Amino acid sequence: MPADRLPAGSPQAETQVYVRRRGRMTRGQHRALDTLSPRFGLEPGDELIAPDQVFGRAAPLGLEIGFGMGQALLHWARACPNWNLLGAEVYQPGIGSLLLGLERERLEHVRVVERPAEDLLARNLPPDSLDEVRIFFPDPWPKKRHLKRRLIQPAFAQLLATRLKPDAVLWLATDWEPYAHWMLEVLDAVPCMRNDAGPGCFAGVSSGTEARPQTRFEARGIRLGHGVWDLRYVRNRASTPSR
């Protein structure tokens, strides 16, 4: 086993069995999964992803975790044509929707991995490989008995930190206030991550090409009277996360 992989017994490296979330799919989404997955999809198995080979060029590497229906990732791809972008998702209608958008807009610098983010980070991405990670509106699992299912947990945050390059950015957003404070507490506790807004503070939404587009989940939350909380972290150059 290469030295930069997690040991097989670690929680993040355990094989995760998951059921593909099919949901209701349109004919177009079905077609996209059948015909566009070979073009835009990655199935890395247990192998490390080599971005220069996958994309055919050297460029900054970004990852969106849980891209939903793909609006924010499409926006990122349009705004940053000089980046290589990965999207991780297990919801098949959302994958189909993103694939249709990539085909329609002729965006060739995005690849999709249909697997849980923990698995992708632990098995397929080496340390210090990502220039930016975005996690917008992850499932808040609001019931107390479900809190352990939340994506942002101390072990996951530590794993993610090891995959970020020095000075790389982690950008998160949620419309569930208790989860916002949960994420703030978890991420502020990672020694090698610096809260860009200051300890215990939330970030403002950026403007210009870095603006976060309003997703349908965000729009729904606003209609229901929810607030929105953004968090931005930077991997410290002087600190090395434990691996």
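That was protein one. Protein two is written in the same sequence-then-structure order:
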Amino acid sequence: MGVIVDDVFFCGDSVFAPEVWQRLILIYAVDIGEMIASIERLKRVGAKSFIASHVTPTDDIEELASINLAKIQMLIDDILHILSTPAETATVLWEICKRHGLAIRTIQQYYLCLDTLKAYLSYLLEEGLIAYEFDANRLMWKTI
């Protein structure tokens, strides 16, 4: 949800600074398709300034939106590459962390990252880019 006051758009957690993406990698999300759609909508808001929760206020939301979309696409590409060989969800998370130097240190961080990864997997499944199968009672993801 966003609010416009005096031509300033307060856009909450719709976008994040590049430094936040660098630090967190798997920024918490529950619906990747809606996240992408929200960022696309944000680019069309006719405000003069934008204030997001984790970003320095800006007059140029287009650049920040493009950075966020590119980071999402990077994760999608990473997951698709990883799933060229069938893998369990935990293995995909391990590979993402290894690729980006992310060290999970708490149970809370683990579950936030895992939930976000599941959101990406659900999105890719809905888009028809991946499939799943059960192998010896293990849920295995794979690219199509």
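The two ends are 35 Å apart (CA to CA). Keep this in mind for the problem set.
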